[in-house]
Amino acid sequence: MDRHFAIVDRIIPWKDGMDVRFEIARDITENMKNRMETERIKEQYELVISGTNDGIWDWNIKTNELFLSRRWKEMLGFDDHEIKNEFASLMSLLHDDDVPGVQDYVQKYLKGEIEKFAIEFRMKHKNGSFVWILARGEALRNENGIPYRMAGSHSDITERKNAEENLRSVSEMQALLMQIALDFINVLEEDVDSAIHNSLRQLASFVSADRAYVFDYDWNNNVCNNTYEWCQEGITPEIDNLQNIPNESNREWIETHKLGQEIYIEDLSQMSPDDPSRKILEPQGIKSLLTVPLMDRDKCIGFLGFDSVLAIHKYSDKEKTLLHIFGEMLVNIANRKNLVMAKEEALRASRAKSDFLAIMSHEIRTPMNAIIGMTDLALMSDDDIARFEYLVIVKESGIHLLQVINDILDFAKIENGKLILEEHHFPIRKTFQQAERIYHLECEKAGLSLSVSLDPDIPEIMYGDDLRIRQIIINLINNAIKFTEKGGISVKAGIKRDIQLEDDEIALEITVADTGCGIPLEKQDLIFTKFEQSDMSTARKYGGTGLGLAIVKELVTMMKGHITVESTLGAGCTFNLWLVIRKGSMEQIFDRKKFIPSMGKPLNILLAEDNEVNILLATTVLERLGCSVSVARNGIEALDFLKEKNFEIVLMDIKMPKMDGIEATKQIRNGACGQDKKDVCIIGLSAHAISDIRDTGMEAGMNDYITKPIDILTLQEKIYHGMGKKLTDDPSPDLVSSGNNR
Ligand code: ADP
To answer: 551 C-alpha to center of ligand 1: Å?
Structure first.
């Protein structure tokens, strides 16, 4: 084996100025071997450092010097020269929240309290993000166990950490959804709103949203409404500003939601400044947003939204999926709520209907009993005065019965959407006077005052349905009398001026006030609903069907108006309503006096009617008007009569055996009774004042229509209009047209 020597040259002074030179050879073979070994180890060490993917650190605890490998610095995005090799560099890059934990851990390890050094923490990357680090290491200690040096590695575990975090977050979210689902399953109907609100709060905190909300799409009105909202403290609620938002205002969203797709804006600032969504969302301070459509099968009924205001939030796919599941839960609970509401409504309606039937049978039986009982007495009595009194009661009971039946009919018409308003010219003051006259005596008997006052500005003649206006007034006065024991009733009418109308229209304002028992606040809206009475026991005491105000409200609405009530329990009620009505003209008014004298000779009237009582009533009325009446008991007989004789008017019952009034009218118009009879004036008669029957009659060719029982004034007016053309040689065109229009 070769040996290595080191030659040392020494010159030592000898004597007489002479020097001696020594050459010493030292065997350095061992030294050389050691040095080469050290070089090899160093090389190996550097190879390990640069070869590993981990960052290496080596800390001299005594001097606090810290070696940080190039890879250590690269892991955080820095070049070698950008970070000084000292302990402070490491500490300055630690996540603030992790500093105390790391310091504590290191101290414990150095004290020997922890056996193996391995800790996870976050360090700041040059680009501002945080990198998760797993630090491992080992300390060298002196014979007393005091550490003087420590070295180890840093591994980047961000990916693993994120995956773990994701998994944790998803399972936490699943647990949360499970909890919400359980809450929803067990929730009582009255707690649904607070359960939804609560779940929004939980989900929002979970996805770091600052505002979570639900919108309903109202496709009928083409608007959407914010129905639920939860906001983080310090975030302004928007729910009040977000009602009745036209769907047109953000078509793109609507179309996306309709397709069942979400809308996700990760960072609003990255959108084009012209983007309509950005323009809407930016003023609300929104940075990120996710909306999930609420799909009821194929139909989008709304959407669920999460706004991030304080910081951008990047939603993972899992988060989105879970929010979609929550959306489905919301749809389910909304459907359940609707179902329960529908069921409750159906139950309530059916209860109200049975109450109504009970009330109705009572309302019908009472006057019926009076009619039958009084008729019996009249038949048995020989005393004319007593008989007269019994018949008065029979008549009053009949009128009452008719009123009940009219209410039922009106109600049925309302239910079918078949209630129609007639229009004619009438003196409005007279309508109020008639109502006053009807109740004047009754009030006097009950010791109540009744005052009716009309603003002088109200035009004298109006054009509209006077009978329906009278019905409204009568209904309100009737109720007022019924529910007032002392004091009085005041009716006022005036013009409401703060409504935009056509030139020929006015808004008539009517107030009916009483000093009666009043209506409890919680019932004040309900009393306008069909079958509802504010107090069943008082209703029993005072009678009534519970339909009156529902009909009044419908009539007022049909006249483009509105009705409200104000009341203090025990201190009376004030019903306030307005309705729109057109101004009329004096010339158009039917003047009863003009009718009979102008006829000269009796009118020939053909009455086609199968009911004997109706025949008796109608012929008596007609004969009193000076008419000559022929009676046909079905359509065929009517045609035969008409073929034989000329009639000015045919009063044609619609329902008759063999041939009904509709068919008979068609045949007359087709010339079955001769060409000269084709245009005879035909007035239909029916017990049902519904638009369908009237329309069928008019379509068949009838000129007009009367509801039975025949009222003398109406009959007179209808004949007057029907005869308009023939009564004068030079008829006014208005007279003729108004006759045929109704
Ligand atoms: P009814 O035929 O029962 O009177 P309405 O629809 O006219 O039906 O009225 C409904 C209910 O409203 C009444 O049963 C009564 O409870 C209440 N009501 C109506 N008008 C008055 C009033 N002037 N004072 C007190 N209660 C009233």
So the answer is: 12
